[in-house]
From TrEMBL:
Coiled coil stretches, renumbered: none
Keywords associated with the record: Membrane, Transmembrane, Transmembrane helix
Protein name per UniProt: G-protein coupled receptors family 1 profile domain-containing protein
Gene source species: Rotaria sordida
Broad class of the protein's primary localization: membrane
Transmembrane spans: 6-25, 37-57, 77-98, 118-139
One Gene Ontology cellular component annotation held by this UniProt entry: membrane
Localization per Swiss-Prot or TrEMBL: Membrane
Domain of life: Eukaryota
Domain G-protein coupled receptors family 1 profile: 17-141
Amino acid sequence: MEIRWTHPIIFLFGVISNTVNIYVFTRPSLRQNPCCMYFLSSSITALIYTIINLPLRTLQYGYKIDPTTYLLSLCKIKYFFTFTWRALTSWYLVLACFDRFLHSSSNVNLRQLSSFKVASRTILLTFILINIVYSHVLVFY
């Protein structure tokens, strides 16, 4: 099928599914669960990535309209955003898996690391580190 038809369908399903995820993970019963914080962060970044990136790709590949060809800075920002937010979505899922490992550990010290406070700090630290790791895109890409 053609990009003009598939991208809007993917966009619609992506926005709906990530919005439902955000709704579910912000319920009071799940709000204090550290694993749900990672899933919530992943859903938020995936939603932002979908809303910004997919329409640009549809214009670029479906209609041959690419606003990044005229402005180098816009091109760099687009690729920086694409790399960082795609990586953030994946890393938050990895952190959710690691949190489940900590939570189910027989070691008390490891279980204590599965907390809301640690999750909040880890999410922020991951955001900062991923942005630093991909900062070269803004200069050299």
